[in-house]
Amino acid sequence: MTTATLTPARAGTGADDTRIGAAGTLRHIGALTRRNLMRIKADPESMFDAVLMPIVFTLLFVYVFGGAIAGGQDSYIQRLIPGLLGQTGMTLALAVGTGLNSDFQTGVMDRFRTLPIGRASVLLSKLAAESLRALLSSAILLGFAFVLGFEVKTGVLEVLATVGLSLVFGMSIVWISMLLGMALRSPQAVQGVSMLVLMPMQFGSSIFAPTDTMPGWLQTFTEVNPLSQLADASRALLNGEGAVAHPVMVVLIWSAVSTAIFAPLAVARFRKRT
Amino acid sequence: MTGIATAPNTRGTAGNAVEVHGIVKHFGSTKALDGVDLTVREGTVLALLGPNGAGKTTLVRVLSTLIKPDAGSAFVGGYDVVRQPKQLRRTIGLTGQYASVDELLSGYENLYLIGRLLDLSSRDSKARAAELLERFSLTEAAKRTAKTYSGGMRRRLDLAASMMGRPRVLYLDEPTTGLDPRTRNEVWDEVQRMVSEGSTVLLTTQYMEEAEQLADELTVIDRGKVIANGGVAELKARVGGQILQVRPAHPAELPEMARCLHESGITSATVSPDDGLLAVPLAGEEQLTAVIGVLGGRGFAIAGIDTKVPSLDEVFLAITGKPTAGPATAPAAALVKEPVA
Fold first, then answer.
1. pLDDT exceeds 90 at position B264
2. Structural domain of residue A81, as residue ranges?
């Protein structure tokens, strides 16, 4: 082996003139996404939230509460499944912070930072892996729902639109999760706080029950809760009843506002930490 | 040098793989690095010796672009740590207390990932990963997740990871802390091999023995300041090299033994009656023969002899005339915690 020479190949300007082009960035994101997926393979329990939760929620609510809420399983399933599908993006987005936190804690992030890659690649690869997880989770939920007798009254395009809307909203929540991941000390703390955010939003929405029996203050909350709007939009898309445009617009506005506020904060914090 | 000068000056001096000029780094009110200067010549090993909290890891983090210095300048392979971080990262490999492997990935997948992030092709990443796994005796464990590895295996994987891109400059941050002697020797062998292949190594350690084993040059650092530097032999001469310990069969004869040595011109012998030991710092190997010759010639009964490398504390004592940082009553190493950025 030859002795390496230490004359920089391109030291002319003194500037950091190694640009990481788009192709390089895509390759890095690909490699890191692969890593995130391999981690899931090595730790299948981490898929519980994506695989088992939709099944457990469906069974629990359809058979335990279905009769009481909607007067029958069949009508309840048509109400519940679109709502669950709508919230899939958000529930999974909240796992991003946990993974990010553990990368910081274990020193893996330091390793990445000594490599000549763009910092955004690390974040974007998390988005990519989470999107794949969300797609898988949505497929499982729908498949299971069909077995139980759920019917899509519209068409494939509407199903895709529902999943897409759920993903868009989920992506806007990812930034909040990343902020939590960087602000809190341990992955467990991140998970705990995430649940604390998620639970009231899930149940204080129109996903599981009609909101008209709730007290006034709670109705106010459910009306502004984006998960209600997501559930309404999903029901309109899949059941073909009610207005589509309004709830979809509201969800998109929520997503845009959340991204506009939290993405710069998360990126700034990430830059500061790295 | 200021680092803001014209182009040729910003690249450091030819022949130096690492050049550090007056680096200062604060963490809050703590001054972790207080104007550190050092150079590592191409193809050599520099050991940065110091107790916990001396600033060793902080300096390595500055030189790996993980943190920015508050003042001063540093060049690695001719690249400025602050202004050319991406180019610099292509030049270095880091194995350390902090930089780590992914526990949930197999040994092979860890190396493959790093290869891809270093822009090696898929085929090259595979080949290089297999080569390094073989070299670090990890081929059998290649498909197991790193979580199942022993401490020594993890350290070897960590070393392999830092070598994926054939870095010209390697930082080894306390590479053998916490390892058993056998694994430690394996790591040492690998470091020596890397150097023989042309790498430049900056090594931090708390062990004089490790520095002696691996380094060409030594820089001793304490409380963020360089307190001594030079060739290993040169510093050893100042510190006194190895220490000969003689255990007489009859401890009562200790003062008499010291007196006889003194008469023969060996004036550095000290007696510790509590341990029943006579200690003689050795300037060279011939002195060992001389001491044994004198004691044997006078008919003293010797129960045992031993030589030992001076500890970090003894090195500090010899250089500064005072023990490592902190109150004299407490073991210095336990006192100051390295700030984590």
1. no
2. 27-273
Q: How many residues does chain A have?
A: 274
Candidates A114, A117, A272, A273: best to mutate against B (most CBs of B within 10 A) is A114
Among the listed residues B226, B263, B266, B269, the one whose alpha carbon sits nearest the alpha carbon of residue B245: B269
Helix or strand or coil: residue B46? strand
Question: What was the pLDDT predicted at B245?
Answer: 87
Q: How far apart are CA B155 and CA B177, in angstroms?
A: 10
Give a yes or no: residue B322 inside a domain: no
Q: Distance from CA of residue B272 to its chain's centroid?
A: 30
CATH number for B165: 3.40.50.300
Report if residue A2 sits inside a domain. Answer: no
CA–CA min distance A241, chain B (Å): 46
Instruction: Provide the shortest C-alpha distance from residue B163 to chain A (in Å).
Output: 12
Q: What is the ipTM of this complex?
A: 0.81
Mutation pick from B6, B100, B108, B123 vs chain A, by most beta carbons of A within 10 Å, is: B100
**Mean pLDDT in residue range B54-77:** 93
Which residues, numbered 149 to 188 in chain B, qualify as contacts with chain A under a Cβ-Cβ cut-off of 8 Å?
161, 166, 168
Does residue B42 sit in the same domain as residue B191?
yes
Task: Tell me: do B171 and B278 sit in the same domain.
Answer: no
Q: What is the mean pLDDT of residues A150-166?
A: 94
Task: Check whether A5 has a pLDDT greater than 60.
Answer: no
pLDDT in tens, A97-129: 988 998 988 888 888 988 988 888 988 898 898
As beta bridge partners, residue B18 has B40, B76
Cα B298 to chain centroid distance, Å, stands at: 42
Question: What is residue B74's predicted lDDT score, i.e. its pLDDT?
Answer: 95
pLDDT of res. B213 = 86
Q: Are residues B297 and B198 in the same domain?
A: no
- The arithmetic mean of pLDDT across residues B21-36, rounded, is 92
Chain A contact present for B65, CB below 8 A = yes
CA nearest to A32 within chain B: B113
Distance CA A197, CA A174 (A): 13
Residues B162, B110: Cα–Cα separation, whole Å: 11
Q: Is the pLDDT of residue B328 over 90?
A: no
How far apart, in whole angstroms, are the C-alpha atoms of residue B151 and residue B210?
A: 19
pLDDT of B324 above 70: no
Determine, yes or no, domain membership for B189.
Answer: yes
Rg of chain A taking only CA atoms, in angstroms: 22
Tens of pLDDT, residues A201-212:
988 888 888 888
Residues of A in contact with B90 (CB under 8 A): 18, 116
> What CATH number did the domain enclosing B274 receive?
3.30.70.100
Task: Indicate if B297 and B166 belong to the same structural domain.
Answer: no
Any domain includes B113: yes
The residue of chain A with its CA nearest to that of B63 is A114
Look at B99 and A114 and tell me if their CB atoms are within 8 Å: yes
> Is B105 in CB contact (< 8 Å) with chain A?
yes
Nearest-Cα residue of chain A relative to residue B146 = A42
pLDDT given at position B194 = 85
Residue B127 falls inside a structural domain:
yes
Question: What's the domain count of chain B?
Answer: 2
